Amino acid sequence: MASKEILKIENLTTYFYTWAGVVKAVDGVSLDVREGETLGLVGESGSGKSVTALSILRIVPRPGKIIGGKIIYKGENLLEKTEGEMQQIRGKEIAYISQEPGTSLNPVFSIADQLTEVIRRHQNVTKEEALKRAIELFRIVEIADPEIKVWNYPHQLSGGMKQRIAIAKALSCQPSLLLADEPTTNLDVTIQAQILELMKNLKEKLGMSMILVTHDMGVVAGVADRINVMYAGRICEVASTKTIFRNPLHPYTRALLEAVPNVALRKDKLKIIPGTIPNLISPPSGCRFHPRCDFALAECASTVPPLVEIESEHYVACIRAKEFTEKTVRGVKR
Amino acid sequence: MPTKREGFKAIRFKVHNIAKNSMTKYVLRRLLYLIPIFFGILIIVFVATRMAGDPVKLMTGLNPRITFEARERLTQYYGLDQPLYYQFLKFVWEMLQGNLGNSYAIRGGTAVTTLVGNYAWETFKLQLAALFFSLVIAIPIGILSARKQYSKLDMTVTTTSLVGTCIPIFYMGIVAILIFSYFLGWFPYGAAHSLDPTRYPFGSYLLDELWHMFLPVAALTFAELAPVVLLVRSSMLEVLRQDYILAARASGLSERTVIYKHALRNALIPVVTYVGLYFGGMLAGAPITEKVFNWPGVGRLYVEAISKLDFPVITGITVFVTLMVLVANLITDIAYAYIDPRIRIE
Ligand SMILES: Nc1ncnc2c1ncn2[C@@H]1O[C@H](COP(=O)(O)OP(=O)(O)OP(=O)(O)O)[C@@H](O)[C@H]1O
Ligand code: SF4
Ligand SMILES: [Mg+2]
User: Fold this and answer.
1) Is A135 in the pocket of ligand 2 (CB under 6 A)?
2) Of A56, A77, B226, B250, which has fewest CB within 10 angstroms of its CB?
3) Per the domain annotation, does A329 fall within a domain?
4) Could you give the C-alpha distances from A238 to A182, A241, A288, B92, in angstroms and in order?
5) Ligand 1 centroid vs A11 CA: distance in angstroms?
6) pLDDT digit string (tens) for B85-116?
7) Is A267 domain-assigned?
8) How would you classify the pairing of strands A38-42 and A22-34?
C-alpha cells in the first residue's frame, strides 16, 4: 500500500484578499495522493475543499492568491511552473470536474465544439479525428445516441447527462489525476449512484488517481481509498476509509459521521454539528474547531494541534487524540 | 470502417438542416409580428398629425387676399376634405405602390420618397460610423476593465464612463465646435459638404465629406462610448464569474481563448440588445445632433416638416423610421438567435 505519491501538497496556503479582509480559505494544507488511489477530501461547506482543488491547477479566481507551500506533481513543483507550462498540465495531466455540472459547459457552444476544442488543444489531431474521439468518449460515459447527442447544446441536456459530459471532457486527454469537485452533489440520488459507479469504473480502467471532493460521507464511503477530513482551511484527520469509519479520532470527524443518516453510528441519534463553520477572515485561535468541540480544553484555544501519526497511516490534528485511542470509541461521551 | 465516418457526416448535415429550418421559421414568425406593429404605429402618427392643425391655414395665413374658395380648392387638392379613414386607406394603398406622396412645403412638392432617400443616407452615415467606432473602442476597453477589476485602470475607465454618460450630446457637440472649429479652426462648423468645390481638401470630394463628418461622428462616438463600456464591463464581469469559464481554464485553454471565445460570446448577448435599441434611440436623437451640426439628415427634415405641418413628409418619415426600427429589431433578434442557441430552439 505504500506506493508512490503522484501528488504531494505541502503547507499550501491560499488566501482571498477581499474588501472585508483576508479570507484564509486554505491555511497550511498538506496532503498526498498515491498513484492509482482515490482520495476523499471531506468537510462542511466552506471548509476550503474547492479552493484546494483550484489551487492545485492554479486557477484560483480573483481575489484569491496562493501565497505559499509546494504542490509537487510527479516530482515537480507546480507553483514554480510558468502559466504556459500550467496550461499544458491542465486538462492533459490533471483534469478537473467542477461542482456544478449544469453550468460547467458553455451555453453558447455545442458539446461537439467544446469537446473537440479540448482534445485538439492537447493532442495533435484533425477536427474529424477529434470528433470521432468525442463520440467514443460519449460511449465510454454511457450516453445513448452519441452521434446525435454530441451536436446538442448544454440546455438541451439533463443534469445527469451534463455531468457525464463533464466527465467525458475531463477524461478526453487521459489525465493521470482527476480532481472531482462534488461531482454528484446536485444530482438525483439514483443518478448520483450511477455517476459514482461510472467514475469508479473509469478510474480503474484508465489507471488514474483521483481526488474526490465532497461534503457527503456517504459518497466517499463507497469510492475513496483514503480520506482527508478538512475543517476551516486545515486538514484535521487522515486515514484509510475503513479507519475513518471504524475508528474516527478527531471530534470533528465523529461529528461529521454522526450527521450522516445512512452511516450514523447510532441510528436513533442523528446529530447535527452545533454551531457554524467559522468566519475565515478571523478564524478561531489554536484548534479552529474548539468553539464547537465537545472535548475542548483551555489549551485548545492557544495551541495549533499539529497533524501527528497516532497509529500507522492514521494522522490526527487534535491534542487529545491519544486519549481517544486509549478509551474505546464508545467510552467517550457523545 | 468508412461507413461510420459517412454516418457522422450525414447526421451532422441533418441536424444542421433542422437548425436552419427552425431559424427560417423563427425569422418568418418575427416578420409576421412586425406587420400589426407597423400599422399600429402608422395609425397613431397619421391621426395625431391630422389633429395637430390645418396646413392650408398655415400655408395661406400670410396671404391677406386669399379667398375662402381658394382655400377650399387647396383643401380639396390635398384631399384633406375627405374623411380620415378614407385618407388613411388612400395613403396605405399608395404606400404599397411605393408612393409616399408629395411634400406640401418643399420645392414645389418634391416626392417624399426622394426626400427621405436623400436625407436618410446622411443620417445613417453619421450614426453608423459613430456606432461602429463606439463598439470597436468600447468592447476592448470594457473587457480589459473587467479583467482588471478594481485596478487603477478599471477605476479610471469606470469613473470616466460615468461622467461621460452624464454629458448630453448637444453639450458635447457645442463644446466640440467651440474648441475645434472656433478656436482651432481645424474642422468646419457644420453641414455635410463644402458648398464651394474649390474648398475641398486636396480637391477631393471624399476627403471633404470625411472632414465634415469628423466632429459630429467624434461627438456621437464619445457620447455612445461610455454606456457601451459600462455595459460590456458589467456583462463581462458577470460571465467571468461563471463556472464554465473556470472549467475552460481548468481544461488548459489559453487565456486568449477563454476570454475572446468563451467569455466574449456570452458577454456580447446584452450588447446585441443594446445595439438593437440604439437604432431606435439614434433616430430619435438625430434631430438634436443634426440641429447642432447643421447636418442635412432625416432628423432635421422631420423637425422642419412638423413645424410646417407638412403631413406627407411627417408620415413618410414615420413610415421610414418605423421600418428601420422594426428591421433593426429583427436583425437584433436574428443576431441573438445566432449567438445564443437557447433562443433558437424554443
Ligand atoms: N471568490 C472568492 N472570494 C472570497 N472568498 C472566497 C472566494 N471563493 C471562496 N472563498 C472562501 O473560501 C472558503 C472556502 O471555500 P470553498 O469553495 O473552498 O469551500 P468548499 O469546501 O468547497 O465548500 P462547498 O462545499 O460549499 O463547495 C469559503 O469560506 C469562502 O468564503
Ligand atoms: S484539539 Fe481540542 S478543540 Fe480541537 S478537536 Fe481536539 S479536543 Fe477539540
Ligand atoms: Mg466547493
Assistant:
1) no
2) A77
3) yes
4) 19, 9, 17, 83
5) 18
6) 888 998 889 888 888 888 887 777 788 888 88
7) yes
8) unpaired
Query: What does the pLDDT read at residue B266?
Result: 92
What pLDDT score does B21 carry? 62
| Structural domains of chain B, with CATH | 116-339 (1.10.3720.10)
Extract the residue ranges of chain A whose pLDDT is less than 50: 1-2, 263-268, 329-334
Considering only CB atoms, which chain A residues are within 8 Å of B256?
A: none
Specify if A12 maps to a domain. Answer: no
Asked if A1 and A19 touch (Cβ cutoff 8 Å), the reply is no
Sort residue B119 into left (φ over 0), alpha (ψ -120 to 50) or beta. Answer: alpha
Apex B154 CA angle, B152 and B156, nearest 5: 70
3-state SS class at B4: helix
CA B22 to chain centre: 28
Exposed e or buried b per residue across A96-124, where buried means at least 16 C-beta atoms within 10 angstroms of its C-beta: bbbbbbbbbbbbbbbbbbbbbbbbbbbee
First to last CA, chain B: 37
How confident is the model over B28-78, as pLDDT tens digits? 877 888 889 889 988 998 888 888 778 887 777 777 777 888 888 888 888
CA distance linking residue A153 with residue A12, whole number of Å: 38
CA B247 – ligand 1 centroid, Å: 16
Grid cell for residue A275: 454551531
Question: Taking the CA atoms of chain A, what radius of gyration do you get in angstroms?
Answer: 21
> What is the distance between the alpha carbons of residues A315 and B179, in angstroms, rounded to a whole number?
76
Report the pocket of ligand 1 as residue ranges, CB < 6 Å. A 16, 18, 23, 25, 43, 45-51, 61, 64, 99, 215, 280
Distance of CA B278 to the CA centre of its chain: 6
- Written as nine digits, the cell of A320 is 487529545
CB pair distance less than 8 Å for B243 and A108: no
**Chain A interface includes B346 (CB < 8 A):** no
Q: For residue B175, which phi and psi values (nearest 5 degrees)?
A: -65, -40
Residue B125 identity: K
pTM score, two decimals? 0.80
Say if residue A63 is preceded by a cis peptide, omega within 30 of 0: yes
Q: What ipTM was reported for this prediction?
A: 0.86
Instruction: Please name the amino acid found at residue B102.
Output: N
Mean pLDDT estimate for chain B: 83
Phi, psi of A305 (to 5 degrees): -75, 125
Residue A190 maps to a domain: no
